[in-house]
Amino acid sequence: MVQQVTSGIKISVETNYEGSFYKNYKIQYAFAYTVTIENQSKDSVQLNARHWEILDALNNVEVVSGEGVIGKKPVLNPGESHTYTSGCLLTSPFGAMQGHYNMVNFTTTKNFEVIIPTFKLSAKFAIN
């Protein structure tokens, strides 16, 4: 598990290799990741958007940006957390993800970025 705190918002990420399959004659490696967003600040906040950079061992980079996470824009009061699970496909058994969430602080009405720490994606069968 990797963790990081930015502006009182703690991000924790756990990953899991889900398996491989062929799609359009190319092998794809499926990974799941579970993110917990914990509000350790004294203010209520809302997650409005996400930005991901997904890298594989073949130097392919996929950028994914959009509103919310899995169709939600969670509001977190002090001490509350939100957990969700999502996934990605890589063309190699190794990779990494990093990014940030765009959030708003309801007390100050200011937007701010919360860093999602870089986390590794690896299929156990490919590790020596």
UniProtKB/TrEMBL annotation:
Pfam families: DUF525. Residues 3-128 form the ApaG domain. PROSITE patterns: APAG. InterPro entries: ApaG-like, ApaG_domain, ApaG_sf. Coiled coil: none annotated. NCBIfam families: PRK05461.1 (NF003967). This is Co2+/Mg2+ efflux protein ApaG. It comes from Thalassobellus suaedae. The lineage of its organism: Bacteria, Pseudomonadati, Bacteroidota, Flavobacteriia, Flavobacteriales. The gene is apaG.
